[in-house]
Amino acid sequence: ATASMSRDASEASTTTAFSSSSAAVGRRGDARRRRRRASVVETVGSARIAFVALLSVVCRVVRASPGANDAYGSSSYYANDVGVVELNLGSGTRGCFETRHSRPNAPPPFLNSEITLEVIYSWDSQRMVTLAFGILLSEKLGYDVVYKSWDKDGGQELLEGHTVAARAYENVLRGKSMFNLELWPVSGAAGKANTIGQKSKFSFEGDLGQVARNGWFVGASATDGPSTWHSLSLLNSTGAFDTSSSRKLMLSSELTVKDLRTSAREADKALCTATTTTLSWYGGTLDCQTGSWAPSSPGCCTRYLSRTTSCAQDCFAVVVESPTWLKSENERRVTSSGLPLEIVYGDVLATADWAAQRTANGTPSAVLFQWWEPDLKISPQKYIRITLRDTLYCSQSYIDVDGNTVTPRQNSYSFEFASYSSPSSCEFEREILEKGAHPRSETSFSDAFYLFDGLKFSFVDVQAILKLQSDYAANYSDQADQEFAAACAWLKANEDKWSAYIKPAEFVFAALPYVVAAVALMMAYILAQHHIVFKKGSYYQTEKQKSKEVLATMESNPIFMLDVMEQKESHRLDLGRSTSPVAGLPELSFKLRELHVGNDEHVVAFTIARNASGAMSSCHSEIYIYSEVSALDVDYKLPLKSGKCPGKLYEHTPGSAKMRVEFEAGQTEMRVELPLLRNPCWMPRRSLFVCMSPTESANVAPIDHLEIYIHQMGYFPRGYRIKSDSGKNGFKKVLKFMMSFLRETKDMPWISSMVWRYQLAYFIMAGLDTFAWSKMFSLLVNEGLLKSRADYCVLVAMVFIAIELFRYHIGLHYFPGSYVLQTHLECLLGRKYSSLSANDLASIDSAESLFRVSSATDTHSIRTDIWAKLHASIIAVYRLIGASIFIFHSLKGEEAIVGKAFALIVFAFCASFAFISMRIRASYMAGIAEDELEVMVYVANHYVYRNTEIVRESRTETKTALRQYEKLWLFLDGGLFERWYQDHFNKWVLMAVLTCILACLYALAPAVMSITGASVGVYVALIGSISQLGEAVIFISESFAIMLACVSKVSQMSELLNIRSTRRRRIDALHKKYTDDDDDSLYERNHERISLGQIHPSVDAVDVIHIQDLTTIRNHPDERNITKPLTLFNGLNAFDENHSVIHSIQAGGFIGIRRTRGTFSSTLMNVLIGTDVPYTGVATLNPLVIHYAARMVATKSSILMNEHFQENLTLNLTLERSRLPPKCHRARRVAALQRYYDSRMLYKLCEAIKLTPSILGDGYREDWGTVSMSAVSSILDPLTEFQLTLIQALVADPDVILVDGFGDRMTFDILQQVAEILRLWLQRRLPVVDDVIPDAPPKTTPRTVIWHGTPFVLLSTLKEDELVLSIKSKSEMSVLPVSVAFNGVKLSDFAESVQSIGPDEDIVNPVWRNVSNMSMRCSGSMKSLMDGYTPLDVLRTTSLLRYISRKGSSLISTREVAAKHLQKERRR
User: Fold this and answer.
1) Is the per-residue pLDDT at 729 higher than 60?
2) Given a cut of 80, is residue 211 above it in pLDDT?
3) Mean pLDDT: which of 371-385, 718-732, 1383-1397 is highest?
4) Rounded to 5 degrees, what are φ and ψ at 1188?
5) Rounded to a whole number, what is the largest CA-CA distance in the chain?
6) Which residues pair with 916 in a beta bridge?
7) What SS3 state is found at 137?
8) Mean pLDDT of the 585-602 span
9) Is residue 731 within 8 Å of residue 666, measured between CB atoms?
């Protein structure tokens, strides 16, 4: 009610107080360091520094729990806020300013807008300053401010030495109060000492702006003049402590007695309980009953002595509010004064005013009391401060708050310090009032903290706001309204003191819904894309289903499964059915069936001819081009009519790519030119079919399609080549070769589009990962974590999700074409190997192993070590650029450092690549050695697996395996390990350089910083940047070195692709006809004229063989071998028995070719069938009448052991169907044959050929042909092999059968049987084959059998008048009848000699019986056998049957064996 100002003070020693200057400097340094730390995180963008900052933030944000020895913090009444009252002081229903700032309405977990402030209820200055600060928080920054008091209504009990001032520090330290604008550092030293010990949990924000001090006072109105009352020594000398003096101070006996045991203060009652009378208290006696304290030797009559004994002279009073205030401070000063003083506890200011107004003997009485400044009650000229002894000269010992005797530290040698005399009491310490904030406020309430940090209240400001509080008392009945109005008035009047610090935080909550919506849309799009890719009927599901179908087809067709599936689909579309030609119409035809040209030619010319036997009226037909590998406007253009010949050739319908060819009446031929384009994609050989289809005005016969082979005449890669085995290939050569290869890849199918889309996607991804995410991460650390900004945390989380969604999206849809490149290169090698002639392959050592190694390992290495590393390096460059841009952007104010960093990056690149250039030769040679050793291992494997009989017969299995093991380790040690070592060495040399650079930067940090002038944060950022950039440069350099080392793989592969085949040599040798005098790149070769010019058709008979001036060479595929090629034939011609040159041999019957020593006769057979190529001249089957020629080779290469029996029989049909355009005559014929030769017809044909009963069995069964060829390998004798090969040839409906090598292991009678079957075929009387086939037009071309064999074989099969071709020399071949060719030896000579020898017995090995038994037994128990298995297991039935047939029929009844096998198949 009296409203005297009260404030608690702690018992801190004067020696622990902070000086104003050192505290201010320290606090400013702390602020600068905090700002520098935030700047470092903003500037660095380094994961290392950000991680450290993240850890520090986590450690700071977590609230401190009380320690084990922290009695104050762990006390239940403090932890549970016992006695704490929430005050209604703020802007809830009140308003100060016209406008009010509002913060986003976000949930508390994302945005905390509530701030708790402590209000010391009985402390007016602190309460008013806090209220003014709270109004700004509420109305200018939009916070919800909660005011709490720990001392209203009795307040909270104080523990140990803690008082209200000390507790104010504790509340801020523990987060109970976010801010406090008035902290007394000396009076609250006990609380401050605790905060100093936990600096990370308390933020000293500088002084408040005013200075305060406790002291002893007397009322000025009760004295006779201030000049004689201003010091304690002056009071003593003027009689203030003389009871007889008129100027004496008030005695303790004159004041009202206050029993502390019944005090209204909880702290007093806690000290003086109801049963307590006196206490030993700081070197004296505390009398709780009379409310007084006196030293042990008072020198006067104290209240305690007056109550307990009798004494004479009363003590003078020093009035203090409570014994818990300034514990030991007043007591030790009374003791050290030596004056007759006694402390009396009571209402201080009320007592002082009462004493000033009291009249004793006609004059007022002065009372000595303890108070502090500043305080509104200490109004001008109202009280006199009593000066005490300067603390610099205090030397008397005293008892501190803990009861220990303390001797002041000596600070002076002056006389004042040494001469201590009464009265002498040390002065109270001056206090620079402080501000304190909980550290979380700097992060969670950054704008409030900024206002708090800048706001100051001077002595005048505090007095003014307290004056306003007093002035408004008459206008408001409610104290809260009064104080709110006073604080508001002061704020409006002093706007310049706080307006500069009002900077409300900017939030991104408003943008978050849009960001979330964008991320949701992105997620929906990606999920939709995912659904489209993986839904039923999609690409993924289609391919997955196709793979299942392929696996199912693989059981019966392991090799040609895709061809069989494709042809079955075409059967459903009925593409094989054709219409018969109309009689009497003109007949158009091509002159040749195939042409071989070079891709360097400008145009290829061919002729369409009208047959002379047909009508000569005007007619027309359609021409179209079919190809699976060549494309219009890429490899060729539409054909054109050549020259000024009659007729027309034009596109039938624009855009249809079908040409209409019109012959005039009487016109016999038309010359057509097909323009060739330079396809940039390198390919060993391309092919296309020029097809002609019949119309209502013309038939097409006999040749309705022309196959044009376009051979690659250039080298791979174009631009630059190196020699793989040369040790002189340095960095420059290897680099140029690799760049040539990379330029070659851009022209490969799909590569360019896939690469630029992939690189664009990952360019964006690199920017997001480096620049965008670095910015976001710095926002996360600086705003989200350091400032506890949940909006930025959510924003960064959304951006993170968006980045990862984008990463998932591009990972699902964007690829660099690695597997496309690998499969394309494998395809190139496969096509090159297939395009080489038999002579070419024979001239290459270990050709199969070389191509196999290159296809299996070189292409894989190119994909992983060149292509993948190239794209990874490019992406690393993107990331390097992004990181550099971010660092340069962040350090844009530090131009010198940016320049040095840029120079360092350039130097690092140049130095690393200079090092790689010096090391590349060793890496390249290591790659060459690896390839050579790899070929060695493959060649050894070829020996082990292809020559097992030799290994077993020689009993060297163990030795061979050990040698192969040693060769493998030679390959690993000398090849793979050497490559790995070179790459490892290159990387770690560069890493060692980077480590030395970083170590020097760490060690020389002070010197470098002093030279460059860089700050600590910038220097740390520079080191982190150099580390990241150096690692990126090393990765790029390492990848580049691996790429260059792997160029050896490209070199090996290119040498195989650049083999100069005989076909290419033949094309090169042809004359070039230039079509443009100004451009020597435009020329053509007249392939048709050369081919047709050497074919001389017979007038009265049909020719089968044409031969003239045949020259073949033993090819040297390596163009570096300049040795003149070895000729096998040199202008070979045929001579009859009259020694006349003949150029053709008539068709029909048998024609024998006598086997020679060496490869002459075999080469002639290869040239006739087309697997070898003449260098010059011609030796070929007549293309005008021979639609198809089947070759029977006496090796198992024509029998596919992995395929089933039935698929082997129709092998030629499958191959022929896959090669031809689907609508030509031959393709339709093959389709009809495929429909005709079903399982039953093939069985009948096998019976007609008299195939062994071991395969056919007792009778026809549906599954007779499903047995694997490996199951019948043991019964494949020479006759059976011949019969199987013959059936393969017969079902393809050939015009010529070439028997190559059969008969050497056959007896005479077997050869006779074979010849009889072939003669039935020649006479068109062979059952099944010569039956009427649906949709098959009748053929009149004579059939021919060409048999290549020994004299015995030829004499056993040919008649006496049939011709035999015998090679006499490189240039001469005789064509003679059998009787003449073998010097009169006749067939009857052999017949007579073998009559005495009985025929061979056919020992039946019934492979079919196991299959039959298995089929019968499995059919009855299949349902029980398949119980518990998936439908996919049914597809494995064939494998099960095959397994049981191998194990024998006794296993049929064993369900466990079958189940075990099916489980094994399922796992496989």
Assistant:
1) no
2) no
3) 371-385
4) -155, 135
5) 181
6) none
7) helix
8) 90
9) no
| Predicted TM-score of the model (pTM) | 0.69
pLDDT for 1452: 40
Residue 689 contacts residue 706 (beta carbons within 8 Å): yes
321 closest CA partner among 519, 583, 122, 577? 122
Sign of CA dihedral 974, 980, 984, 985: positive
- Residue 1203 tokens read as 């395929």
1021-1054 burial: b if 16+ Cβ within 10 Å, else e:
bbbbbbbbbbebbbbbbbbbbbbbbbbbbbbbbb
Contact 1254, 1404 (CB under 8 A): yes
| Mean of the per-residue pLDDT values of the chain | 78
Q: What is the CA radius of gyration of the chain?
A: 55
Tell me if the bond preceding 439 is cis, omega within 30° of 0. no
Q: Which residue blocks in 204-315 are alpha helix, DSSP H?
A: 232-237, 266-271, 303-308
Residue 1132, both tokens: 């070979």
Does 315 score more than 90 pLDDT? yes
How many residues would you count in the chain? 1468
- The per-residue pLDDT for 588 is 92
Q: Quote the pLDDT of residue 994.
A: 81
Secondary structure of 1404-1433 in HEC code, one letter for each residue: CCCHHHHHHHHHHHHHHHHHHHCCCCCHHH
Rounded to an integer, what distance in angstroms lies between the CA atom of residue 87 and that of residue 1360?
Answer: 134
Q: Within its chain, how far is the Cα of 141 from the centroid?
A: 45
C-alpha–C-alpha distance, residues 110 and 108, integer Å: 5
Q: Residue 1421's pLDDT band (boundaries 50, 70, 90)?
A: very low
- pLDDT over 90, % of the chain: 17
Rounded to whole angstroms, the Cα distance separating 1452 from 1409 reads 13
In this prediction, residues 1113-1121 reach a mean pLDDT of: 63
Q: What are the structure tokens assigned to 231, written together?
A: 């010091």
202 has a pLDDT exceeding 90: no
Pairing relationship of beta strands 619-626 and 1083-1084 according to DSSP bridges: unpaired
CA distance 883 to 885: 5
Sequence-ordered strand ranges (E) for 203-315: 203-219, 278-280, 284-287, 292-295
578 and 1334 in contact (C-beta within 8 Å)?
A: no
Residue 44: CB atoms within 10 Å: 28
| Cβ 1297 vs Cβ 1190: under 8 Å | yes
- CA-to-CA distance for 771 and 773, rounded, in angstroms? 6
- Least confident piece of the model among 192-201, 922-931, 1156-1165, 1236-1245: 192-201
Going by C-beta distance under 8 Å and a sequence separation of 6 or more, which residues neighbour residue 853? 931, 934, 935, 938
Helices (H), 663-750: 731-745
The yes-or-no verdict on residue 287 having pLDDT over 90 is: yes
CB 606 within 8 A of CB 595: yes
What are phi and psi for residue 155, nearest 5 degrees?
75, -170
C-alpha of 1022 from chain center:
27
Q: What is the pLDDT of residues 988-999, one digit of tens each?
A: 777 888 888 888
